[in-house]
ABC transporter
Amino acid sequence: MTINALFKVNQPRFVAIILAYLVSSLTLVLNSYVLMYVVNYLKNRDLAKWTQFMLLELLISVGSYLFPRLATYLVQQQTQDYNHSVRQGIVRSYYTHNKHVKVPEAQNHLINDLSLVNDNYLSNFFFVISDVFTIALAAITLLMIHWVLLLVTLIIVAVSIYLPKFLNKRLINATNRVSTSNQKYLETLHNWLGGIDELRHYLAGSKLFKVTRYEQNKLSDAYVNYAKKQQLINLLNEFSSNLFSLILFVVAGILIKNNLIIFGTIVAIGNYHYYISGAIEDINFSLQGMKSVEELNLKLKEETSYIPIKDEKKKSGAIGIELNGLSYNYPDNHIDFPNLEIKPGEKVLLTGSNGRGKSTLLDIISGEKSDYDGKLSFKNQTRAIEDFDKLQINYMKQESTIFPGNAVDNITMFDTAYQKDAVKVISELNLNLNKSGEKFSGGQKQIISILRNVVNPSNILLIDEGLSGVDDANKERILKYLSNLPQTVVLVEHNLNKDLKRYFTREITV
């Protein structure tokens, strides 16, 4: 996720966000600037001018209330639109890279990771923009009032930023001392209490009490020292803050006495110091937040990269399969497959006892498993096919996904080009599939998954126990329909009677 990409989501709105933050900072600074004149005219008892500037102050106050909220609203719109495009990119990447997707990991990227980047990167970027505007406008205003006030304010802000870092070194040392003492105390307890039975047996309790009391006192001293340093630092921070405010007021008083600035400046100078110092602290905090999600941001960028899909029509036509010396190794099992040749257009029933590698063989043929030994080749009626990517293999696994929607949507996979074919095959098989995705029975889901692989063109159709939940009447209709398809069909099934086996060219047992 990048700021450049965020800008491109909606460029006019992005510019409007920047302008909204600019006006927000401007109203904040102007509020204190006008307040100077309100106080000044009140002191001079100029009721007319005081009324005019009070109305102006009220108008600016309304703006300072509205524009930050407008900016926040526009930022939400911009980031949500950007999130939508990022989510699309992630899903598109999963789809085009043809990689296995772990659902919890995908959900984490699409929801939690995006939220973290939004909060720590995108939002903080706009906070930095707002704070930069505030610093710049406050500095310009101070320069307009008097350059001495700007110089003194910048010096005080610099000291205010450095002083806590200097003091915190002492607090860090005190914290480390507490940690070390605590670790030493725990080690002492572990070393001595672990042998408490021997200590009790030999009446050596006094030594146990002496050692543990010594470490307890050291830990207590460390905590007291930490608390003392913390209170001292808080005291120094409060003292320095009050001292800096006093210095500002003294400098402003001197300038007022010499008629170099108006009296009302005395109420605004503290605000400008607060604006500049607060904005600098916020910028530092925001930049740390942005840096904290750099790695996560890079990961999301990788997840959104994808390969454009060429819009090519899928081609059907039978392709043969040939196995020579094929085998596959699992950590606890080795599977050897028989040498065999399945001719283009054959309908093969693959049987065998559990664990003999029927599903593994389909995984290998489909390309899902490539770390096998031996040779697997494909050929049509005239020549061998060396480019696996040119093959269209449809593979129905034992567990197929049914998506929300009706049967036709699930069969066509939401491609309207195949809608007529889906309706036609449902009609030819006289199937009752007038339900939605969540209401289909197990057998109906299997039928829909088979038809999905039938309607979408393929050279080879692999079905792994796709009829186990289908009743006998529908099972026969489907097998009869499959037997008339032009493509090569390999089906794994256990319990088919002789009448149903007649729809296959042959049966192969592994």
Observations:
- The first helix runs from residue 3 to 9.
- The radius of gyration is 38 Å.
- The CA atoms of residues 152 and 340 lie 90 Å apart.
- The longest strand covers residues 320-330.
